[in-house]
Amino acid sequence: MYDMGTFYEAKSVQEAVELRLAHPEADIIAGGTDVLVQMREGRRAGKSLISIYGIDELRGIRLEDDGTIRIGSLTSFSHITRDPLIEKYLLCLGEAVDQVGGPQIRNAGTIGGNTCNGVTSADSSSTLHAYDAVIELTGKNGIRRLPIQEFYIKAGVVDLRVEDGEIQTGILISKDSYENTNGFYIKYAMRNAMDIATLGTSVNARLSADKKTFERVRIAYGVAGPVPLRATTAEQFINGKEVTPENIEAFSKEVLNDVHARDSWRAAKDFREHIAVESAKRALIESVRRCGGEV
Question: Which of 53, 58, 110, 153, CA to CA, is 20 to 30 A from 80?
Answer without folding.
Answer: 153
